[in-house]
Design goal:
The protein is mainly alpha-helical and 100 residues long. The chain contains four helices and two strands. It has one domain. A two-stranded antiparallel sheet has the order 1-2.
């Protein structure tokens, strides 16, 4: 059983290595968007952690922070940031894939 678990983990990690950063970011946002909020981010323009933070802040500004959508969007972004640290490291403001 332990062997199967290890093979599964290696298979998942190998798949992650071949994915590019934009694909991983899109999947993270799709997975975190449980309330089907209208999240449109230009993934081509995201090169640094600050770019990603700015994109999320701009989306927050379009939705009122006190409205129900604003609260759901904020919860989604908190979840996104937690998931990003599973796949990326942030060094001097830049996003790097952990599996590179």
């Amino acid at each position: 059983m332990e062997k199967e678990v290890q093979e599964f983990k290696q298979g998942v990690l190998n798949k992650l290595v071949t994915k590019d950063t934009k694909t991983i970011l899109k999947e993270i946002f799709e997975e975190s968007n449980k309330n089907d909020l209208d999240i449109e981010i230009n993934y081509d323009s995201i090169r640094t952690w600050n770019d990603l933070d700015d994109a999320m802040n701009n989306l927050k500004k379009t939705h009122s922070r006190h409205s129900n959508n604003g609260k759901m969007l904020n919860e989604c972004f908190i979840s996104v940031k937690k998931m990003i640290f599973r796949y990326f490291s942030v060094y001097k403001g830049r996003l790097y894939k952990i599996f590179d």
